[in-house]
Amino acid sequence: MPAREMAVKRPTYAKDGLKSINARGCIIEFVATMTYVALCVPVQMMYGNGFTTAVTYGVVVTLLTYAFRKETVAQMNPSVSVTFMATGKITVEQMIGNIVSQIAGALIGVCWTCVWVAGGNDPTGYVGATLGYWGQANAGRVFFCETVANWLFLVTIVQATHPSLKQSAFFSSIFIGFAYYVCLLFTGSVSGGMINAARSFASACAGSIRIKGRAAPGAVVSTKILWDRHWIAWVAPMAGGAAAIVVDFFMTGFPEKKNTEAPHWLDATV
Questions:
Q1: Transmembrane ranges (predicted)?
Q2: Which pLDDT score, from 0 to 100, does residue 218 have?
Protein backbone atom coordinates (compact mmCIF):
# COMPACT_ATOMS: atom_id res chain seq x y z
CA MET A 1 0.00 0.00 0.00
CA PRO A 2 1.50 3.37 -0.97
CA ALA A 3 2.20 5.76 1.85
CA ARG A 4 -0.21 8.58 2.38
CA GLU A 5 0.86 11.91 1.03
CA MET A 6 2.83 13.63 3.75
CA ALA A 7 1.23 16.91 4.76
CA VAL A 8 2.82 17.33 8.17
CA LYS A 9 5.22 20.26 7.99
CA ARG A 10 7.31 22.28 10.35
CA PRO A 11 6.25 25.67 11.69
CA THR A 12 7.07 28.29 9.06
CA TYR A 13 7.46 32.04 8.92
CA ALA A 14 6.20 34.24 6.11
CA LYS A 15 8.81 36.20 4.18
CA ASP A 16 7.05 39.49 4.85
CA GLY A 17 6.61 38.92 8.58
CA LEU A 18 3.48 40.33 10.17
CA LYS A 19 2.67 42.14 6.92
CA SER A 20 1.75 38.76 5.47
CA ILE A 21 -1.20 38.31 7.87
CA ASN A 22 -4.32 37.88 5.79
CA ALA A 23 -6.86 40.41 7.05
CA ARG A 24 -9.73 38.50 5.47
CA GLY A 25 -8.82 35.38 7.41
CA CYS A 26 -8.64 37.38 10.65
CA ILE A 27 -12.04 38.95 10.02
CA ILE A 28 -13.54 35.52 9.42
CA GLU A 29 -12.02 34.25 12.68
CA PHE A 30 -13.42 37.27 14.53
CA VAL A 31 -16.94 36.86 13.12
CA ALA A 32 -17.00 33.07 13.52
CA THR A 33 -15.75 33.17 17.13
CA MET A 34 -18.15 35.97 18.05
CA THR A 35 -21.06 33.98 16.59
CA TYR A 36 -19.93 30.79 18.31
CA VAL A 37 -19.74 32.46 21.73
CA ALA A 38 -22.94 34.49 21.33
CA LEU A 39 -24.96 31.38 20.42
CA CYS A 40 -23.42 28.78 22.72
CA VAL A 41 -22.64 30.54 26.01
CA PRO A 42 -26.28 31.53 26.71
CA VAL A 43 -27.29 27.88 26.32
CA GLN A 44 -24.52 26.85 28.70
CA MET A 45 -25.69 29.44 31.23
CA MET A 46 -29.30 28.29 31.06
CA TYR A 47 -28.89 24.51 30.81
CA GLY A 48 -25.56 23.83 32.49
CA ASN A 49 -22.93 21.52 31.08
CA GLY A 50 -25.08 18.58 30.03
CA PHE A 51 -26.44 17.07 26.85
CA THR A 52 -28.28 20.14 25.53
CA THR A 53 -25.22 22.35 25.82
CA ALA A 54 -22.94 19.77 24.22
CA VAL A 55 -25.32 19.34 21.28
CA THR A 56 -25.55 23.11 20.80
CA TYR A 57 -21.78 23.51 20.74
CA GLY A 58 -21.38 20.56 18.39
CA VAL A 59 -24.00 21.81 15.92
CA VAL A 60 -22.71 25.40 15.93
CA VAL A 61 -19.11 24.25 15.40
CA THR A 62 -20.23 21.99 12.54
CA LEU A 63 -22.16 24.76 10.78
CA LEU A 64 -19.46 27.40 11.16
CA THR A 65 -16.71 25.01 10.10
CA TYR A 66 -18.66 24.11 6.98
CA ALA A 67 -19.68 27.70 6.22
CA PHE A 68 -16.06 28.89 6.18
CA ARG A 69 -14.52 25.70 4.78
CA LYS A 70 -12.90 27.57 1.86
CA GLU A 71 -11.25 30.11 4.11
CA THR A 72 -9.90 29.40 7.61
CA VAL A 73 -12.12 26.39 8.44
CA ALA A 74 -13.41 28.70 11.19
CA GLN A 75 -10.76 27.66 13.72
CA MET A 76 -12.39 29.75 16.50
CA ASN A 77 -9.96 28.29 19.00
CA PRO A 78 -6.35 29.26 19.87
CA SER A 79 -5.30 25.62 20.26
CA VAL A 80 -6.58 24.81 16.76
CA SER A 81 -4.61 27.71 15.28
CA VAL A 82 -1.46 26.62 17.13
CA THR A 83 -1.91 23.05 15.90
CA PHE A 84 -2.44 24.25 12.32
CA MET A 85 0.72 26.33 12.61
CA ALA A 86 2.73 23.42 13.99
CA THR A 87 1.63 21.17 11.12
CA GLY A 88 2.37 23.77 8.46
CA LYS A 89 -1.19 24.65 7.49
CA ILE A 90 -0.77 28.33 8.39
CA THR A 91 2.24 30.51 9.10
CA VAL A 92 3.34 31.62 12.55
CA GLU A 93 2.29 35.16 11.69
CA GLN A 94 -1.19 34.08 10.58
CA MET A 95 -1.55 32.07 13.78
CA ILE A 96 -0.88 35.21 15.82
CA GLY A 97 -3.43 37.17 13.81
CA ASN A 98 -6.01 34.42 14.15
CA ILE A 99 -5.61 34.09 17.92
CA VAL A 100 -5.90 37.84 18.48
CA SER A 101 -9.04 37.84 16.31
CA GLN A 102 -10.48 34.89 18.21
CA ILE A 103 -10.00 36.53 21.60
CA ALA A 104 -11.50 39.79 20.34
CA GLY A 105 -14.45 37.93 18.80
CA ALA A 106 -15.03 35.98 22.01
CA LEU A 107 -15.06 39.18 24.08
CA ILE A 108 -17.62 40.82 21.77
CA GLY A 109 -19.66 37.62 21.68
CA VAL A 110 -19.82 37.42 25.46
CA CYS A 111 -20.95 41.06 25.54
CA TRP A 112 -23.92 40.04 23.41
CA THR A 113 -24.49 37.20 25.86
CA CYS A 114 -24.68 39.65 28.75
CA VAL A 115 -27.27 41.64 26.80
CA TRP A 116 -29.37 38.59 25.91
CA VAL A 117 -29.15 36.84 29.26
CA ALA A 118 -30.17 39.29 31.94
CA GLY A 119 -28.65 39.15 35.40
CA GLY A 120 -31.75 37.47 36.81
CA ASN A 121 -31.12 34.49 34.52
CA ASP A 122 -27.51 34.26 35.65
CA PRO A 123 -27.74 33.69 39.42
CA THR A 124 -24.03 32.98 39.84
CA GLY A 125 -22.95 35.95 37.76
CA TYR A 126 -20.23 33.85 36.13
CA VAL A 127 -21.51 34.37 32.54
CA GLY A 128 -20.81 30.74 31.73
CA ALA A 129 -17.22 30.80 32.98
CA THR A 130 -15.66 27.36 33.34
CA LEU A 131 -14.21 27.01 36.82
CA GLY A 132 -12.25 23.79 36.45
CA TYR A 133 -13.61 22.24 39.63
CA TRP A 134 -14.87 18.67 40.02
CA GLY A 135 -15.84 17.83 43.60
CA GLN A 136 -12.67 17.27 45.56
CA ALA A 137 -10.57 16.51 42.48
CA ASN A 138 -7.31 18.39 42.40
CA ALA A 139 -6.19 20.55 39.51
CA GLY A 140 -3.97 17.78 38.17
CA ARG A 141 -6.88 15.44 37.55
CA VAL A 142 -8.92 18.15 35.88
CA PHE A 143 -5.91 19.06 33.74
CA PHE A 144 -5.46 15.43 32.67
CA CYS A 145 -9.14 15.15 31.74
CA GLU A 146 -9.00 18.33 29.67
CA THR A 147 -5.79 17.25 27.97
CA VAL A 148 -7.29 13.93 26.87
CA ALA A 149 -10.44 15.62 25.57
CA ASN A 150 -8.48 18.24 23.68
CA TRP A 151 -6.23 15.57 22.21
CA LEU A 152 -9.27 13.79 20.78
CA PHE A 153 -10.71 17.03 19.42
CA LEU A 154 -7.49 18.25 17.84
CA VAL A 155 -6.37 14.95 16.37
CA THR A 156 -9.79 14.73 14.73
CA ILE A 157 -9.38 18.20 13.23
CA VAL A 158 -5.87 17.49 11.95
CA GLN A 159 -6.94 14.26 10.28
CA ALA A 160 -10.27 15.62 8.98
CA THR A 161 -8.44 18.44 7.18
CA HIS A 162 -5.58 16.31 5.88
CA PRO A 163 -5.16 17.04 2.13
CA SER A 164 -4.53 13.38 1.33
CA LEU A 165 -8.06 12.52 2.47
CA LYS A 166 -10.61 13.00 -0.28
CA GLN A 167 -13.76 13.06 1.81
CA SER A 168 -16.10 15.98 1.31
CA ALA A 169 -15.84 19.10 3.42
CA PHE A 170 -19.37 18.36 4.62
CA PHE A 171 -18.29 15.14 6.31
CA SER A 172 -15.12 16.76 7.63
CA SER A 173 -17.27 19.40 9.33
CA ILE A 174 -19.51 16.73 10.83
CA PHE A 175 -16.49 14.85 12.23
CA ILE A 176 -15.13 18.05 13.78
CA GLY A 177 -18.49 19.06 15.27
CA PHE A 178 -19.15 15.57 16.62
CA ALA A 179 -15.70 15.47 18.22
CA TYR A 180 -16.44 18.78 19.94
CA TYR A 181 -19.78 17.43 21.16
CA VAL A 182 -18.19 14.29 22.62
CA CYS A 183 -15.37 16.22 24.30
CA LEU A 184 -17.70 18.79 25.85
CA LEU A 185 -20.08 16.09 27.03
CA PHE A 186 -17.13 14.30 28.64
CA THR A 187 -15.56 17.34 30.30
CA GLY A 188 -18.77 19.24 31.09
CA SER A 189 -19.33 17.70 34.49
CA VAL A 190 -15.62 17.65 35.27
CA SER A 191 -14.42 21.15 34.45
CA GLY A 192 -17.24 22.86 32.59
CA GLY A 193 -15.57 22.13 29.26
CA MET A 194 -12.42 24.24 28.89
CA ILE A 195 -11.94 23.20 25.27
CA ASN A 196 -11.74 26.75 23.95
CA ALA A 197 -9.39 29.10 25.78
CA ALA A 198 -10.74 32.21 24.05
CA ARG A 199 -14.30 31.41 25.14
CA SER A 200 -13.18 30.59 28.69
CA PHE A 201 -11.19 33.82 28.92
CA ALA A 202 -14.08 35.96 27.64
CA SER A 203 -16.55 34.41 30.09
CA ALA A 204 -14.15 34.87 33.01
CA CYS A 205 -13.68 38.55 32.11
CA ALA A 206 -17.42 39.15 31.80
CA GLY A 207 -18.07 37.20 35.00
CA SER A 208 -15.57 39.32 36.91
CA ILE A 209 -17.30 42.50 35.75
CA ARG A 210 -20.79 41.19 36.51
CA ILE A 211 -19.89 39.93 40.00
CA LYS A 212 -18.29 43.25 40.94
CA GLY A 213 -21.19 45.14 39.42
CA ARG A 214 -23.64 43.29 41.67
CA ALA A 215 -21.74 44.05 44.84
CA ALA A 216 -23.09 46.62 47.25
CA PRO A 217 -21.40 50.03 47.15
CA GLY A 218 -18.13 49.86 49.03
CA ALA A 219 -18.23 46.07 49.35
CA VAL A 220 -15.13 44.09 48.45
CA VAL A 221 -15.85 41.01 46.35
CA SER A 222 -13.47 38.36 45.09
CA THR A 223 -13.43 36.90 41.59
CA LYS A 224 -10.64 34.50 42.51
CA ILE A 225 -12.78 31.43 41.79
CA LEU A 226 -13.03 32.47 38.13
CA TRP A 227 -9.26 32.63 37.69
CA ASP A 228 -7.86 30.02 40.10
CA ARG A 229 -7.76 27.27 37.48
CA HIS A 230 -8.06 29.35 34.36
CA TRP A 231 -4.55 28.31 33.41
CA ILE A 232 -5.95 24.86 32.62
CA ALA A 233 -8.04 26.40 29.84
CA TRP A 234 -4.81 27.43 28.08
CA VAL A 235 -2.28 24.79 29.02
CA ALA A 236 -4.42 21.65 28.64
CA PRO A 237 -5.45 22.39 25.02
CA MET A 238 -1.82 23.04 24.12
CA ALA A 239 -0.77 19.77 25.75
CA GLY A 240 -3.55 17.95 23.92
CA GLY A 241 -2.49 19.66 20.70
CA ALA A 242 1.11 18.56 21.17
CA ALA A 243 -0.06 14.97 21.57
CA ALA A 244 -2.23 15.31 18.46
CA ILE A 245 0.73 16.60 16.46
CA VAL A 246 2.91 13.68 17.57
CA VAL A 247 0.18 11.22 16.58
CA ASP A 248 -0.09 12.89 13.18
CA PHE A 249 3.67 12.64 12.73
CA PHE A 250 3.50 8.90 13.29
CA MET A 251 0.53 8.53 10.95
CA THR A 252 1.80 10.66 8.08
CA GLY A 253 5.55 10.74 8.58
CA PHE A 254 7.93 13.15 10.23
CA PRO A 255 8.98 16.19 8.19
CA GLU A 256 12.31 15.71 6.46
CA LYS A 257 13.15 19.34 5.87
CA LYS A 258 11.93 22.77 6.77
CA ASN A 259 9.51 24.49 4.40
CA THR A 260 10.37 27.87 3.00
CA GLU A 261 6.86 29.22 3.42
CA ALA A 262 3.49 27.78 4.38
CA PRO A 263 0.10 28.81 3.00
CA HIS A 264 -1.50 31.85 4.59
CA TRP A 265 -4.64 29.92 5.46
CA LEU A 266 -6.05 26.48 5.14
CA ASP A 267 -8.27 25.41 2.26
CA ALA A 268 -10.16 22.36 3.50
CA THR A 269 -12.28 21.72 0.43
CA VAL A 270 -10.60 18.36 -0.09
A1: 21-39, 45-68, 99-119, 139-158, 170-190, 231-251
A2: 78
Q: Which DSSP letter does residue 20 get? A: G
Amino acid letter for position 12: T
In this structure, how many other beta carbons lie within 10 angstroms of the beta carbon of residue 15? 10
Write out the CATH class of domain 17-251. mainly alpha
163-175 CB burial, b ≥16 within 10 A, e <16:
eeeeeebeebbbb
Quick one: which of 150, 165, 182 has its CA closest to 247? 150
Of the candidates 257, 209, 254, 199, the residue with the CA atom closest to the CA atom of residue 6: 254
DSSP code, position 19: G
- Domain extents in the chain: 17-251
Return d(Cα 41, Cα 203) in angstroms, integer.
Answer: 8
226: Cβ–Cβ under 8 A, 6 or more apart, which residues?
126, 129, 131, 204, 207, 208, 211
Distance of alpha carbon 195 from alpha carbon 36, whole angstroms:
13
- Please tell me the pTM assigned to this model: 0.86
Q: Could you give phi then psi for residue 8, rounded to 5 degrees?
A: -75, 125
C-alpha 100/C-alpha 16 separation (Å) is: 19
* CA separation for the pair 91, 95 (Å, rounded): 6
**pLDDT, tens digit, 9 for 90 and up, residues 12-71:** 666 666 777 889 999 999 999 999 999 999 998 888 888 999 999 999 999 999 988 777
Summary mean pLDDT of the chain:
83
State residue 30's pLDDT score: 97
Measured distance CA(108)–CA(206) in Å, rounded: 10
How far apart are the C-alpha atoms of 68 and 169, rounded to whole Å?
10
Residues 6+ apart with CB under 8 A from 108: 30, 34
